[in-house]
Amino acid sequence: MQGTKSNDSATKPMVEHLEDLRRTLIRIAVTLLISFNLCLVFANRILFFLEVPLCRVVQNPKDCLQSLNVTDSFVLAMTLSFYGAVILAMPVVLYYIADFILPALKPNERESILPSFVFGALLFIAGVVVCYYVMIPQTLKAFIKYSAWLEIKPQWTVSSYISFVTQFMLAVGLTFEVPLVILLLVRLGVVRASTVARSRKIMIAVAVILAAILSPPDPLSMVVMAVPLIMMFEVAVWLAKFAEKRMRSRQQGSRDFE
Hints:
The protein is mostly helical and 258 residues long. Helix content is 82%, strand content 2%. It is built from ten helices and two strands. Strands 1-2 form a two-stranded parallel ribbon.
């Protein structure tokens, strides 16, 4: 059935492919809209959830967070709802994307990409959890200690704090996707494991650049972001070697069987 579906998709005219794309984009937009309105109802709960890392560092986070502009509360609610909607709708969005892409792929490509959607979601969640429970509290604690050393009372705007937390969690979540992306490229034959292994120095430079782009704009966050990113690159090297070795064993076994 899958092969038939793939062949049917391959023989579709361009107009039908565009119609499928339009239908997929509409479904994604409707899903995001529903998720946005749902998160808007619980915006105060989302704010409380994002304040938990600060609660683990200071006794009363309300003393650190403040609103300075008249429209801050409204903008904050919209921002929280947007980020919440993206996270809440992501499983459904990935399903719609897979439903659009997979029928057009070859069987071996489908076998490689289909599990990637599942593992990609799990790795992203793992990165967000590690950032939420470990990296953000430690970074906030370092900032507060540095402020105390300068004899400055830390008072941050709510919007700046939420931007810091959400950007940090999103960046670390994406960082945890690096091994999966490299492993998928090796499985599809786009790159070789030896090429990945020889690119360690380039990877370190890329990790620093990505950390500077993705992390909040301060040196400490960049370092905290770059270290796990370099570790993810290293994990990707070993996974790529293992995957390529396994693929060669399978190919050799197939030849021996023939």
